[in-house]
C-alpha cells in the first residue's frame, strides 16, 4: 500500500507528457542557518584562563622581585667566600663552622670600622657646631668687604631662625621621622635576609650542587660543575680587582689628607676606598662628601682642594685604571665591562651595577669553552696591516700634487711597479 502511494505521488509530481516542466524560482536561495562551532566556547574559556594566569604570574613576580634580588645578591656573596670556606673545609673543618667563622670575621671588621667612623664623625660634628659662630663671622666679614654691605651676625641669625623655609623644614623633618624609621627597619630586614641566604648557599654548596646535578643527565652534570667553578673564579677576580682599586684609592686620598693636615686621615682614606668601590653609581659622591666635611672644619679652602682631587682622581680611575685592571682580573674587554655596568644599572639599579661584571665574565668564560673557533686568515686587512708594496696615502697625495713629470713621482711609480711585479711572482 505504501508503494502504491509513492507511485501515485511520483506521477502526480511529474509533468504530463508533451509539456515543459516549470522553471525553478529565480533569486537567491536561503542557506540553512549554521550554528556556533562547538570548539569556540572552549577556545574562549581557554584564552581567558591563559590571560588570568599571566596576570596572576605577573602580579606574583612583582611581589617577590625584592626577594629574588636579595637571593641573587646572597648567591654572589656565597660565591665570593666560597674559596675561603673550601680552603678551611679541605683541612678538616665542617663547612658550617667554616662559613660561620668567615661571616664572623667580616662582621667584626665591619663593626669596628663603623664604630671608628661613627666616633670620628660625632666628634667632628660637635667641633663644627661649636665653631659655627666663628665660620659665620668670617663669612659675614667677607661679604661686607666684597659687596660693601653692613651685615651683623645677630641679624643673620634672627633672619634664619624666623624664616619660613626653616620652619617648613623642621615640620617636614618631624613628619618624616616615621618614614626614616621604616626605611631603617626595612634595610635591616633585607640585610638579615641576604646574610641568611648567603650563609646557606656557602655552607650547603656541595649539597646544592648535588641536588642540581641529580635532575640532569651525566653529560650535563659536568657542565654544571664547570659553570659553578667559573662563577667562583670570576666573582673572586672581580672582588680582587675592586679590593685592589680600593687600596689604591685609599692610599691616594690618605696622602692628600695627610698633606693638608686633616684629622683622622687613615679612617677617611679607608672610607673613601671602600665606599667608592663597593657602592656603585653614587659611591664616589658619598665617599668624597665626608672628607670634604672634615676638611672644612680645618680650613674651608681645604674642602675645595679635596673636591678637586676627588673629581680628578675619579676621571683617572674611570678612564685609565678601572678598565685595564678589571679587564686583567675578570678577563673581559673594557668596553664590555663598561657596557655591562650600564645594562645592569638599567635592569636592577645599584645591585645590577655591582654584579654585572662578574655575571658577564662568568657567561663569557662559560660560552668560550663551548663555542667552536677557527684559525684566522693571514690577510693584512684582517691583521690591521697595510699591504706590501703600496705607498702610504700621504705619499700618494704628495706625488699627485707634484705632477706626473716630476722626477720623484717617476721614481716612486717605478718602485710601486716593481713591488707589484714581485707580489705577482710570489706563490
Automatic annotation (TrEMBL):
Question: Which locations, inside or outside the cell, does it occupy?
Answer: Cell membrane
Name of the protein in its database record:
AI-2E family transporter
Topology relative to the lipid bilayer, per the entry, is: Multi-pass membrane protein
UniProtKB keywords: Cell membrane, Membrane, Transmembrane, Transmembrane helix, Transport
Q: Which GO terms describe its biological process?
A: transmembrane transport
The keyword Iron is annotated on this UniProt entry: no
Keyword Membrane appears in the UniProt entry: yes
What InterPro entries does the database record attribute to this sequence?
A: AI-2E-like
One Pfam family it belongs to:
AI-2E_transport
Q: What are the start and end residues of every segment in region (Disordered)?
A: 1-32, 381-427
Chain ranges passing through the membrane: 43-61, 67-89, 101-126, 184-203, 244-262, 300-316, 336-363
Residue ranges with Polar residues bias = 1-10
User: Where does the record place Pro residues bias?
Assistant: 18-27
Amino acid at each position: 500500500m505504501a508503494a502504491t502511494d509513492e507511485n501515485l505521488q511520483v506521477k502526480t509530481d511529474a509533468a504530463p507528457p508533451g509539456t515543459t516542466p516549470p522553471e525553478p524560482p529565480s533569486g537567491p536561495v536561503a542557506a540553512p542557518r549554521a550554528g556556533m562551532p562547538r570548539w569556540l566556547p572552549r577556545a574562549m574559556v581557554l584564552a581567558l584562563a591563559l590571560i588570568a594566569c599571566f596576570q596572576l604570574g605577573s602580579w606574583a613576580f612583582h611581589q617577590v622581585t625584592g626577594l629574588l634580588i636579595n637571593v641573587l645578591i646572597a648567591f654572589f656573596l656565597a660565591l665570593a667566600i666560597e674559596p675561603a670556606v673550601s680552603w678551611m673545609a679541605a683541612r678538616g673543618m665542617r663547612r658550617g663552622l667554616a662559613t660561620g667563622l668567615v661571616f664572623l670575621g667580616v662582621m667584626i671588621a665591619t663593626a669596628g670600622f663603623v664604630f671608628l667612623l661613627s666616633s670620628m664623625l660625632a666628634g667632628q660634628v660637635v667641633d663644627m657646631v661649636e665653631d659655627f659662630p666663628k665660620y659665620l663671622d668670617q663669612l659675614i666679614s667677607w661679604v661686607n668687604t666684597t659687596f660693601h654691605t653692613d651685615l651683623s651676625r645677630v641679624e643673620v641669625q634672627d633672619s634664619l631662625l624666623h624664616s619660613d623655609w626653616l620652619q617648613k623644614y623642621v615640620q617636614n623633618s618631624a613628619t618624616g621621622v616615621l618614614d626614616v624609621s621604616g626605611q631603617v627597619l626595612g634595610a635591616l630586614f633585607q640585610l638579615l635576609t641576604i646574610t641568611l641566604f648567603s650563609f646557606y648557599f656557602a655552607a650547603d654548596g656541595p649539597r646544592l650542587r648535588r641536588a642540581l646535578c641529580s635532575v640532569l643527565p651525566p653529560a650535563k652534570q659536568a657542565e654544571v660543575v664547570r659553570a659553578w667553578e667559573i662563577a667562583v673564579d670570576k666573582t673572586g677576580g672581580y672582588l680582587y680587582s675592586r679590593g685592589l682599586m680600593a687600596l689604591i684609592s685609599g692610599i691616594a686620598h690618605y696622602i692628600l689628607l695627610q698633606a693638608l693636615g686633616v684629622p683622622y686621615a687613615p679612617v677617611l682614606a679607608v672610607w673613601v676606598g671602600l665606599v667608592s668601590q663597593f657602592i656603585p653609581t653614587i659611591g664616589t659622591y658619598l665617599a668624597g662628601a665626608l672628607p670634604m666635611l672634615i676638611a672644612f672644619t680645618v680650613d674651608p679652602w681645604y674642602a675645595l682642594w679635596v673636591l678637586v682631587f676627588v673629581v680628578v682622581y675619579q676621571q683617572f680611575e674611570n678612564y685609565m685604571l678601572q678598565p685595564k685592571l678589571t679587564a686583567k682580573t675578570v678577563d673581559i674587554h673594557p668596553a664590555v665591562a663598561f657596557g655591562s655596568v650600564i645594562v645592569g644599572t638599567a635592569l636592577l639599579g645599584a645591585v645590577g651595577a655591582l654584579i654585572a661584571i662578574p655575571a658577564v665574565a662568568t657567561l663569557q668564560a662559560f660560552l668560550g669553552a663551548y663555542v667552536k673557533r677557527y684559525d684566522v686568515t693571514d690577510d693584512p686587512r684582517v691583521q690591521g696591516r697595510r699591504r706590501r708594496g703600496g705607498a702610504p696615502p700621504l705619499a700618494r697625495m704628495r706625488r699627485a700634487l707634484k705632477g706626473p713629470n716630476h722626477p720623484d713621482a717617476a721614481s716612486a711609480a717605478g718602485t710601486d711597479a716593481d713591488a707589484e711585479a714581485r707580489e705577482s711572482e710570489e706563490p
